[in-house]
Amino acid sequence: MCGICGKINFNNQKINISLIERMCRSFPYRGPDDEGLYISGATADVNKQNPNVGFGHQRLSILDLSHSGRQPMSNEDGTIWITYNGEIYNYRELASELRKKGHRFKSDTDTEVVLHLYEEEGPNAVNRLNGMFAFAIWDEKTNRLWVCRDRIGIKPLVYYWDGKHFIFASEIKALLTDPDISKELDYDALQLYLTFNYVPAPYTIFEGIKKLEPGKYLLLQNGNVEINTYWEPPDSVDPVVASFSVEDQIEQFKGPLYDGLNDAVSCRMMADVPLGAFLSGGIDSSIIVALMARTSSSPIKTFSIGFKDDPLYDETNYAREVAERYGTDHNEFKLSYKDMLDVLPDVISAFDEPFADSSAIPTFIVSRETRKYVTVALSGDGGDELFAGYRSYLSEYWYSRYMQIPGLLRKGLIENLIKTLPDSRDVKILEYIRRVKKFIKATKGSFPERLLSLKEIFPYEIRKNILLNNFINRNGLPDPALSRINMLLGFYNGDRINSILYSDLRDSLPGDMLTKVDWMSMKNYSLEVRVPLLDHRIVELAFRMNGSLKLNNGKTKYILKETFKELLPKNLHNRPKAGFEVPISRWLKTDLKFLIDQHLAKDKLEDALEFNCFSKLVSELLPVRPTRYLGKT
To answer: Which pLDDT does position 208 carry in this prediction?
Structure first.
């Protein structure tokens, strides 16, 4: 895994090599093993109008640790250059094919495979790649830039384009080293952040800086930018299989699912450096570890995290049971509020834009501890989004059944009673009451409105109050969060479970889960995290299944559990989804209460510089289109 960056000037302005160096050195932790630069030899020829190009690269050596794998890398005659971040798991098969066509290799890297495959097939080459990646290729013969991101959005890529300068990088902070880029706040992005706790692609918190969306590539040629979608999951199931009974459909898919995931795990164990796995104690990571153990000739190194004196949030006993079953070299870390507080500055400093998923903190710690033992770790991320593991899917399942209760009984008795009950995340029974309240709220309105109510942090009315009504309602603009949910739910028709799963695959998975894992693992000096469940072949298989195979009679991830139940301890077979949550609520009432007193008391807020600055920003800028620049993050 690596860090990439670059700039292309279309105004005859030469590339400043010190700028590319600054961009690289803004994220040294992404590639601590080497740094490389490429500056094109194009001159300011008025007749030819050749763009000037600069690429940068920070390398983490995973395959071919020798100097021959250094980037940016060129083809044989130096006319095509690449800066690349990722892992292509079928690169050896592709390399063999390319050698038969006469291509000569100077390294044993997947980077060079991508380069030569582009020579053969152009941008269509991306359809041959199985892996996670973000890269840029400059073709001097055609004066064309090709920028590409993997199908699911495992690896990040951001860019800026103003008609004269195109700048790209793995992280926003690299772009902000360039004085050509303004730092204006994007208020639509801010609204989406207040809704979801993260800023979804293609937005970033800075107006003008965009994320390249998963499954898309960008072509820049003759001063024109074109963005193409090269991959989507299947939008319908096989009609023949769909006519089978649920039991027969499951039998139809179990073999391909087992074989496919087994292959996805096996190819992700390819590395020239030490390798291990995150083991949370949940279904997904337990399946990954089980398949790894059946492939490996030596004990797998596994890593788990839990919370001291907080059994409601601690899953380490389940992880330990899996580790013992498969004889792994198991490492367990128990956290207290002090551990979380100690790393908070490091976690905050990793982010280039607002991000409020509290599980980033334990993810940072488990990545840090894991990196002491291995360079690559496999994880179970993606299983919930493919096979319906979250409670939001159960909410949709129970919705139709709840609505069969007579309205007078629902509204007059049940809902009025539930409103009077206390709730809390800190006590199991009160946590269930909290979930019931959220479910009831999610029974109101249209399908998109109900789904949004399950996802949103600040509802629309509160967001209006935070950002001022006259800004949000200016020109009658709709709620961007609801518009986004509407758009995402339009991909599937008739299968609401798959519709929700698709919305998560395209939105919360890359925007929250994969962003969190990428940032937290990279910040710990390039721990590379691989996600077998997000092999695009598994994703395509999952979306050829009816939603009823994933959420069956109220059982989440039904087909996944049925397929792999022989590999799992019995305690995990029907275990409900727990989630990688942090007992932050209880800590803020007890051990961390001093933070509330220090920073959120009314008198403190009124005196705080940050509050005054924000109030001034709101009062002066929000009623009109913002024109003032914000400082760098």
So the answer is: 94
